[in-house]
Design a protein that fits this description.
Elements: E1 7-8, E2 11-15, H1 29-46, E3 53-58, H2 64-77, E4 81-87, H3 90-95, E5 106-110, E6 119-126, E7 129-130, H4 133-142, E8 156-157, H5 161-176, E9 190-193, H6 201-207, H7 236-249, E10 253-257, E11 264-267, E12 273-274, H8 276-290, E13 295-298, H9 304-312, E14 316-319, H10 324-336, E15 341-345, E16 351-353, E17 359-360, H11 362-374, H12 379-382, E18 391-398, H13 404-418, E19 425-427, E20 435-439, E21 446-450, E22 458-465, H14 470-482, H15 491-498
Parallel strand pairs: 3-4, 3-5, 4-8, 9-10, 13-14, 13-15
Antiparallel strand pairs: 1-2, 2-6, 5-6, 6-7, 10-11, 11-12, 15-16, 16-17, 18-22, 19-20, 20-21, 21-22
């Protein structure tokens, strides 16, 4: 088997069960066993001669229990000791390598994040953090040559989620430091929408125990068929569901998690959704207050208004590349070079703080918001001066050329060479991904960013304007330029202009 086909950046992902789309199953129990054994080999090279203790958790997907047994089989075959943490969040699985009396040497989380229920995958952690893309490549290379022994796939059961939730509660208690120290959220009404993923624990084990009223929370029960909506804060149906639940409950805050709780979004009492630029702004304001002058690293598609918001508070905004690993690693790099960077966050909701091991943990992001709420601070007021664009859009062009990456480079070169010929256009000076162009007031009054996709044969275009109709002005000018390019389907841009 070619295990490299299961690699998805720094994760393993595949089709784990028969499905209505007819996609063939490739994430088999055999493949999972081999990859898990390969993880032991990878860890053993870092800790030679040691019998490794590895924790394993899963989200609510239907295929989770069977794949978990396959993981145990692979780990046991490779000589490691397996530990069953049961239903867990991805962040909790990393934390199992650094928290507790005897932290684990490594951990594996069985999840495919927000993807459809027939998919599943593996995420791997050591105490140094999640494995990188090159590390996963090594696992796929190790996997075919490892012998899997016949065993029953047994493992010692461990109740680690209690340790993890105690860690989260302690952060909130210390952060609020109220007169009722153990119940800092008493009198607050906070609802959670877990989307039938793994995040239901947050309502019962964190909020309720800290004194919050959690009535109106929904879809807390794990159900891998996801019968109510996709567990994804960016999904429109999911966002509307939690928004309605927040308003119906007249709650002080609504919280929504993705399947494995490494991402989150929120809803304010008036129904305003706290996602993308809004969520980044609130968290930026918090960390800049705690670490004056700190650098906030974001992905490449954040708004101009956010940049101004961060600068106004004395922070430094570094707009970097898409991909949560890219953003986190850039923030780590800055710190290693002596530049204070306390927050790395993508518009997708993946956010990591230096104070929390640079772990992208949706629950921990909500901890930071809850501390502000517990102190009596008005979260909406915190972003009252965040300048919102008049309009924005994302348009995705299918790449029809066979040489997807090379063709993308040709398209970007064409666009770069055309900027000087286009009146009112200028290249962004500090840009780390694709081609980002600023336009003056007469020619769109905003910006556009064309880039190559990290994983798909498409080229996404993000476009934003501070003037109604400005996006159309930029789109028309861009269409003239891209019409000279080959290997790109421009129909989505043409349709956007027609609308």
């Amino acid at each position: 088997m070619d295990y490299s086909k299961l690699q998805n950046g720094s994760d393993i992902r595949g089709i784990a069960m028969e499905n209505k789309d007819g996609d063939p199953v490739n994430l088999t129990e055999e493949a999972v066993a081999h990859l898990s054994a390969a993880f032991v080999k990878w860890l053993s090279e870092k800790k030679p001669g040691k019998t490794l203790r590895i924790s394993v958790g899963r989200d609510s997907r239907i295929t989770g229990p069977a794949l978990m047994k396959a993981v145990f089989k692979g780990l046991n075959s490779a000589g490691a000791k397996s530990h069953d943490l049961g239903l867990a969040s991805t962040p909790a699985m990393f934390m199992s390598t650094v928290l507790g009396d005897t932290p684990f040497d490594g951990s594996i989380m069985i999840t495919a994040s927000h993807l459809p229920s027939h998919r599943n995958g593996l995420k791997f952690f050591s105490p140094e953090g999640g494995l990188e893309k090159d590390d996963i490549k090594k696992l796929t290379e190790f996997a075919p040559d490892i012998e899997i022994k016949e065993n029953d796939g047994d493992a010692e059961k461990v109740s680690f989620m209690d340790t993890y939730t105690a860690y989260l509660r302690d952060k909130i208690c210390k952060g609020v430091n109220s007169s009722d120290y153990d119940h800092p959220l008493k009198g607050r009404h906070i609802i959670v929408d877990a989307g039938n993923g793994a995040g239901g624990f947050f309502a019962e084990k964190v909020l309720k125990e800290l004194g919050a009223d959690i009535s109106g929370s929904q879809f807390l029960e794990p159900d891998g068929s996801f019968p109510n909506h996709i567990p994804n804060p960016e999904n429109k149906e999911a966002a509307e569901s939690v928004r309605k639940a927040t308003l119906d409950a007249k709650a002080d805050l609504g919280i929504i998690f993705d399947t494995d709780v490494d991402r989150a979004g929120a809803v304010l009492p008036d129904g305003r959704e706290l996602v993308r630029n809004d969520l980044i702004a609130v968290l930026s304001a918090i960390v800049i207050k705690e670490h004056p002058g700190t650098t906030i690293v974001t992905d490449s598609v954040t708004s101009s208004g956010l940049a101004g918001y961060i600068a106004k508070r004395g922070g430094v905004h570094r707009r970097f590349k898409r991909g949560y690993k890219n953003v986190i690693n850039e923030s780590i790099r800055l710190n290693n070079e002596g530049t204070d960077s306390s927050l790395a966050i993508e518009t997708s909701g993946h956010g990591a703080l230096r104070e929390n091991y640079f772990l992208d943990d949706g629950a921990y992001l909500m901890v930071k918001l809850l501390i502000e709420l517990g102190k009596g601070n008005d979260i909406r007021e915190m972003i009252s001066d965040l300048k919102e664009p008049a309009e924005s859009a994302e348009i995705r062009f299918p790449v029809t050329a066979e040489d997807v990456a090379e063709n993308g480079d040709r398209v970007l070169s064409l666009l770069t060479d055309s900027v000087d010929k286009e009146e009112g256009w200028s290249l962004e000076k500090e840009n780390y991904e694709g081609v980002r162009i600023n336009t003056d007031e007469a020619h769109g009054n905003g910006w556009l960013l064309l880039r190559k996709s990290l994983h798909e044969p498409i080229m996404p275009l993000n476009i934003e304007s501070d003037t109604k109709g400005g996006c159309e002005v930029m789109a028309k000018a861009l269409l003239k330029i891209l019409s000279k390019a080959e290997g790109l389907d421009l129909e989505p841009l043409e349709e956007y202009i027609r609308q």
